[in-house]
Amino acid sequence: MIKNIVVQLYPYSKISKKEIYDLLDFLKTNNIKNIELTSEIHAYLPGDILKDFNVYGTHTLASNKKPYPGKTIYPSIIFENDFIFPLSLPATFLGRSLNNKVNSFFLGNKYRRTDFSKVLKTRNYFDKEFWIELACWLNTKNDLTLHNHSYEIDLVIKDESPWTILNRYLMPHIRFQFDPQNVSKQGLVEKTLINYHNRIDSLHLDLDSPVTSNTTKNILLDFSREVPNPIDIVIEQRSTDKFKLMKQIEKIQRLI
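^ that's the sequence the OP posted. Answer follows.
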């Protein structure tokens, strides 16, 4: 059951303020009211410019102290060092998995969100206790959603993934936002949807993405139609082309 179609503004975080304002005007003109921000975009937007929108979440970092509308979405539990330039550069030649192993060997792979490193006693996220302790801390928060990168789905800790451990210990009000493009193996997408369908309240979808196969896209659309709990479809378009965005919105509306 689809609750809302939401447009994530992540691809627009590197364009000018004027282009952001033009985009927001374009969305309003086309009666698109639901948006998902990043902390980078929200940091330079005046508060009144969002008054006509429903902000469904802000991908926020601990360092961003500016108040923001909507619920908090943590981009990922672990701050992955292979996402950060120049450490990300070798991934072009080595592949992301091998690049991450190289970085881990030299740097110890101890990067994590500052929120968690300050409040948790267990520092090693390769230990199951880290994720149990994290779940206990997250349970004290209100209206919080966890977005996955690769670690949450792919990392194996005593035969379980971090999301499996979190799902067991988290209270129902802590939700998951599933991004299938961050999963290393497309075969894990359907398994993830089945395992955590009661906790997923939104998922990212880009029908134009070359990363996701047509089979996987159909699985995501089928899940969106059939899941009993209302969820948001967050369009995460890689292109900044406004008219391609509009075509994708219209296509998703037809399909669901």
